[in-house]
Description:
Helix content is about 75%, strand content about 5%. It is built from three helices and two strands. The mean pLDDT is about 80. The protein is flat, with a radius of gyration of 38 Å. By secondary structure, the protein is mainly α.
Amino acid sequence: VSTQSTGDKTGAKKRDVPVEVIKYWKQKVDELSEDVEAILMEERQEKELRLAEMQAKRAENLVLHSEEIHSRPARVWFMSETEKKSIKDKAKALNQGDDDLDHQDQHVNDDDDDDDDDDDDDD
């Protein structure tokens, strides 16, 4: 393996790798690729098995505890969609009103600042 500097400031180097070394590692990768594929297939199958077991356990629990599940009261929301929208609209209207008041306060304060400057000139 020979190493040559490219001459730039990054410190990058150009390396020449013999063909025999490349062939050796390519052969190693090719040999291992079959094992890798087998492992990936196994992992996919294990994942599917876990999902199937989870679904079976869920179905079993639904059957075993169906009486308890059906005896529970239905879920009731404390606010309907229209009530939520109404509150949101009111909050938005109040917020816009506050913004208008803030702008008015700024104009009043700007006028007060001008008056203070006039008082300083009299001294």
